Here is the input.
Amino acid sequence: MAKQAAKTAITPTREEDYPEWYQQVVKGADLAENSPVRGCMVIKPWGWGIWENMQRVLDRAFKETGHVNAYFPLFIPLSFFEREAQHVEGFAKECAVVTHHRLEPDGEGGLKPAGPLEEPLVVRPTSETIIGETYAKWVQSYRDLPILINQWANVVRWEMRPRVFLRTAEFLWQEGHTAHATKEEALEETMKMLDVYADFAENVMAVPVIKGEKTPAERFPGAVNTLCIEAVMQDRKALQAGTSHFLGQNFSKASNIQFLNAEGKQEFAWTTSWGVSTRLIGALIMVHSDDDGLVLPPRLAPKHVVLLPIYRDASERSGVLEYVNDLANELRHVPYFDGKIQVEVDDRDIRGGDKVWQHIKKGVPLRVEVGPRDIQSNSVFVGRRDQGPKEKKAVPRDEFVATVAKTLDDIQTSLFNKAAALRESVMHPVDSLVEFEAYFTPKNPDKPEIHGGFALAHWADDPAVEEKLKELKVTARCIPLAGPEEPGKCIFTGKPSNKRVVFAKAY
RNA sequence: CGGGGCAUAGCGCAGUCUGGCUAGCGCGUCUGCUUUGGGAGCAGAAGGUCCUCAGUUCGAAUCUGAGUGCCCCGACCA
Here is the structure.
């Protein structure tokens, strides 16, 4: 007797234990695993495939907006790092520092660090300082500007509470660093890249975002202004999915990026920086996935279609495989998004049900079963990942091939719409502190249930507000750019306010 | 950095209190056979410095001491 099949592929469900569900989705989809180094993860091929797709699409967007790629060192001399006071304050506590350059026997069979460095090296938590130092050498005249460079790199921030993809000690990202002759141009760049991110999140990740400006307390250390995109996860918490910083002249003064303008006067350049990281994969998981595992938007899925040959014995096998391989080859020529349909034929010798569930847990958008019966009727049996695992239907083979790209677009759209509906359902105007507190207080404080959401409330920049927010474990996510001007009173201090701010618990 | 807990097979655990046969169990892994349109069954196999070091003892996974690592709660997290 087969044992009772679990109702969902992932246990626990989102409702039962959201953080644990997240970890099980990552495991079930074979995206990544924890490594022997605390806080550092091994990204496995399926997870890496998603990141590669993100990189490809973003990289093209950066090139289309006039940027080029380059690479700067992993190590930053401590003295560079010290130059921008705010920057130091923000990052000092999470820096890994290299102090030695050699190992030697410790006399007990092991090794110990030897050869102390004259100046310690900080493993980059971000590269403003080292890139600023380099730009200072490159820039002499207004004719050398703008500099529009991006780099793909790893960075290290020694986090106390790591979580796979969402907060890891080492993570991968891209960081754009630009220098401009005028403030206006730098501001325009900051906004332009925010739009690139928002467009990517919505059209490629199928994740609706709120574009906004950070409050002073949440700003990047050393920035004049930080813009961000914020997304709603299924547990109603917020996740910052991308940031774009207007750095003013803070870093150019710290690194001495000066140029001679057209009037022959020395000026400091205006700089920006902007980045997104492997954290986006965490966002992808928490926005779309369900209790059966990962759900991938087709535009980022490493494979769009998995073909599952079904046969009983060797005599059936060759016929089915021939049919399936033929179908795979035809599909591989079908254009989709910015390339072709990616197809996997899974003929591994493992039990059928187990195999199908593996692909469900990995979030492959389309599963196609082909057995002797289907071949007889020249049709295929199709399951969509955005629908239930049992909702499958027979489709004539040629129709499937002709409509596969459109079907993937449908899935992409349905995922976006579902996420947009979720976001709408958790946006909530709040007009009093009492209401605010109630909104963000779980019924069960020991094991908080899914609660809260995105509270839109009037706000004033005041230390008392920070105090209250900390108590509730809520943060000001952003001042939405699109939010209407609306006179009101700060719900914390009673001070006048002309716009609502988004508040939420956050990752 | 403060408070608490844990350390035995890849993972989850029992055994420790009360020292004593060859250190077990579940899951997973591997192999074979039977199965396969929905998460299989049977048979077999591999896999352990019982965290480390020192001590007590005829004998230590078990008792004692020191060390190390990890987890949870706080602090911290642009």
Observations:
- Residues 303-410 of chain A form a domain with the Rossmann fold fold (CATH 3.40.50.800).
- The longest strand of chain A covers residues 111-123.
- Residues 397-426 of chain A form the longest helix (30 residues).
